[in-house]
Amino acid sequence: MARAKKSNREATLDNLRNEALKIRRNVWRALRAAGSGHMGGSLSAAEFLAALYFHHLKIRPDEPDWPDRDRFILSKGHANAALGAVLAQAGFIEDAVLDQFYAYESLFGMHPDIKMAGVEMSTGGLGHGLSIGLGMALGARLQKKKFRTIVMIGDGELQEGSNWEAAMAAAHQKASNLTAILDYNKVQQSGHVSDMLALEPMASKWSAFGWAVREVDGHDMDQVVGALDALPYEKDKPSMIIAHTVKGKGVSFSEDTHLWHNNMVPDDVYEKALAELGEPV
Amino acid sequence: MSAASTTPAWVEKVQNQSRLSFGLAVTDMAARDDKVVAVSADTLDLIGLREMVAAAPDRVIEAGIAEQNAMGVASGMATTGMRPYLCGYAPFITARSMEQLRNDVAYAKQRVVIGAACSGIVLGVSGGTHHALEDIALMRSLPNMTVLVPADAHEAWHLTQATENLDGPSYIRLGGKMDEPPVTAVDASPVIGKATTLRRGTDIAVIACGVLVVEALAAADELAGEGIGVRVINMHTIKPLDRDTVLAAAAETRGIVTAEEHHLTGGLGGAVAELVAEEHPTRMRFVGMPDEFAIVGPTPKVRERYGMSAANIMAKCRELMS
Ligand SMILES: Cc1ncc(C[n+]2csc(CCOP(=O)(O)OP(=O)(O)O)c2C)c(N)n1
């Protein structure tokens, strides 16, 4: 019995790993279509996005405005290529939209646009998502709704003070239906976070702000799924998942450097990236 | 001496991009004046500060992605006698830190110079969160503030240097990672508060700023072929507005067309209209962003769609001729 269960879980994890790989491939595809883009922060988020959209979130791709759906906000909106990829893979938008990244009149621009199916909020200005997520969580509670709200934020983004205002408010409101996922890839636009404006100690900061904190390897699907399945972590507290990740994950030349925060993607770069990523099953 | 050897070194380095002019001018000033300090909001490459990081690392304060804090820090440093040059993205360094800007910088009248990259719809593909189409209106509404909109990278270099002599805060609106065709000479010496007249017609006056100056020139050249003499005024200082040049244009031509990459509410057009309505009413037409959020798309196409183009400037000039 236990054995069967385990293989079930393994199958789930394999499927999610495959979706994460597809996200990475689709990110490069969208960026090539646009000519450039934010690969670093899109690639570091792939496992969590796959696990959210194919395992965790209660959503209906054919009814994107279903009132009881779980809410996901990509606060680090410049990673929109990854969000678009997972929305296409999950069936919220047509696959062909991915080739319209940055295109004239497209709803799929550099940052999420609330007018596109599956997008809960227009983001891109950093440090907005957590407050908006808290608003959604309070809206759920006041209307006795069960939906949950999850906000993904970047580490550089956390330098915006507004995040910490939201952190205080969420703890004060005991918003246990709110979760933040920190894509902790250690790199921002101009360099490593520790050289620009250091944020450590991260976990104890969030605990001190009244959040229930868990740290995981954000590229280990077993840990990613485990962290999501265990939500919420504590009664009456918002939950913070600190996902240790690698910026530009999956392609040797884009990993762990600010030079690939946002860069050009000519055909040869695209071909190299896809060759390194390999084929999905 | 050959022309090449007399061209100052900065000209090539700024690559026709005003954002780089700002950072390199600050670096240049910092070498002369040890009070000059750059404050960056994760914008070291964006604003061309890497050279200064190498030359004077202590005087580049990286504030992180935290524009409100950066603004307050710049104000505080200014009170101690330092000369902070604050670098950010136009949409964030204005709207995000607006209260610090109003209270700590403008109200307290501190000598902070704000370099705002990626203004207007330079970030066309980024969408509405990243367009800065209200920044001139916001900055212009603040007492004590000097508001500068260079027409190209040359002017951006000179105007940044010219802030040395200002005793209050200033805002310099800059472009992004896009070529800005030069319309002013390398050795021009723009004076803050004094517009430059680039064409001397007397039928219609086009008062333009920033990237619309090149469009105004194209419109004027084409209309000259139709026998319409267009005066083209490069209004690089929105505030304090050059009253004499505007009022002369109102008095000496049949009407004024303003052109800017900014919402039609509250920008250059508004500033000109406020002045002429009271002192020398004349017919006016406005070229700029209508009262809506722009769509996503490549900057040139988005500009075109909303009429921020030579063609639309010509159409407005013809309207005033009839
Ligand atoms: C308020 C604001 N300031 C500046 C920017 C410009 N910007 C876009 S992405 C970025 C760096 C973000 O770093 P991080 O949050 O670590 O993202 P990731 O590494 O996950 O891509 C900056 C400075 C912005 N979008 N919003």
List the helices and strands and how they pair.
The complex is a heterodimer of chains A (281) and B (322).
Chain A: H1 2-34, E1 36-37, H2 39-43, H3 46-56, E2 71-74, H4 80-90, H5 129-142, E3 149-154, H6 161-172, E4 178-184, H7 193-196, H8 202-208, E5 212-217, H9 221-229, E6 239-244, E7 263-264, H10 267-277
Parallel strand pairs in A: 2-3, 3-4, 4-6, 5-6
Antiparallel strand pairs in A: 1-7
Chain B: H1 3-6, H2 9-13, H3 18-32, E1 36-40, H4 50-55, E2 60-62, H5 67-79, E3 83-89, H6 90-95, H7 98-107, E4 113-117, H8 135-140, E5 146-148, H9 153-162, E6 170-173, E7 196-200, E8 204-208, H10 212-225, E9 230-234, E10 237-239, H11 243-252, E11 255-263, H12 268-279, E12 283-289, H13 299-305, H14 310-321
Parallel strand pairs in B: 1-2, 1-3, 3-4, 4-6, 5-6, 8-9, 8-11, 11-12
Antiparallel strand pairs in B: 5-10, 7-9
Thiamine diphosphate (TPP) sits between chains A (40-41, 44, 76, 78-79, 124-127, 154-157, 183, 185, 187-189, 247, 261) and B (42, 65, 89, 92, 96).
What would your notes on this structure say?
Chain A has a single domain (8-277), classed as Thiamin diphosphate (ThDP)-binding fold, Pyr/PP domains (Rossmann fold). Chain A contains 10 helices and 7 strands. By secondary structure, chain A is α/β, with parallel strands linked by helices. In chain A, helix 1 (2-34) packs across helix 4 (80-90). Chain B is α/β, with parallel strands linked by helices and 322 residues long. The mean pLDDT of chain B is 97. A 7-stranded mixed sheet of chain B has the order 2-1-3-4-6-5-10, sandwiched between helices. Chain B has a 5-stranded mixed sheet with strand order 7-9-8-11-12, with helices on both faces. The radius of gyration of chain B is 19 Å and the shape is globular. Chain B has 2 domains: 3-173, Thiamin diphosphate (ThDP)-binding fold, Pyr/PP domains (Rossmann fold), CATH 3.40.50; 196-321, Rossmann fold. The A-B interface holds A 34, 77, 102-111, 113, 122-127, 156-157, 159-161, 188-191, 196-197 and B 40, 42-46, 62-69, 91-92, 96, 123, 125-130, 295-298, 301-302. The complex binds thiamine diphosphate (TPP). Thiamine diphosphate sits between chains A (40-41, 44, 76, 78-79, 124-127, 154-157, 183, 185, 187-189, 247, 261) and B (42, 65, 89, 92, 96).
